[in-house]
Amino acid sequence: MCEDADIPAAVAAGIRGRFHNAGQVCLAAKRFILLEKIADEFERCFTEAAAAIRVGDPFDKTTEMGPMARVDLRDELHKQVEASIAKGAHVLCGGEPCGGKGAFYKPTVLSGVTQAWRLSTKRHSGPSLR
Length: 130
Prior knowledge:
By secondary structure, the chain is mostly helical. It has a single domain, classed as 3-Layer(aba) Sandwich (Aldehyde Dehydrogenase, Chain A, domain 2), CATH 3.40.309. 38% of the residues lie in helices and 7% in strands. The longest helix is centred in the middle third of the chain and has 16 residues, at 36-51. The relative contact order is 0.19.
């Protein structure tokens, strides 16, 4: 993203691109490449927007993100998130399954993830990376 980017518009597009269908689409945004000058502002705004996503029953009109396809996929994602944290990633929001029944995972943003880590390279649903 360039220095003259419209940060609010870019964040809105990034949130839709990452979390639509709980991130379970092959075209879901996974990485955001930012110039250092705007990286902190984008990260802050993106994290605030992700943390505000309403997770819940997909039949409820106020829900913005439903569950993942299966509990085992949610559990595998959580293992990837935990492994990334153990390697030094920072949880900016989310980072854990939602309480209760179903394959729900909190909208998650991690910072400090490198391309060598499994979370960064394997297809998955859930977290966004910086």
